[in-house]
Amino acid sequence: MTQGPNRILDDFAKLMTDAAGVAQGARREVETAFRAQAERFLSDMDVVSREEHEAVKEMAVRALDRVEELESRIAALEKSGSGGAADA
Length: 88
Hints:
Layout (H helix, E strand, L loop, with lengths): L2 H43 L4 H31 L8
């Protein structure tokens, strides 16, 4: 009967190994489902990519630079008196 307790321990160890494998599989499945749900959520929110954000940011900086340049030119024209403001 020396095999009795050893067999029970072997069966218990096999059961624990199988349970650990099932737990790892369940974990992977939950992670995959979570990622898919997060990707769907973000696509539904219509979030812009980093590249799109950077492109629009650069356009805004160039537009503000141009506005400042035009404001300087207008101020210079008004100062010189040739702005055509006398018609208004």
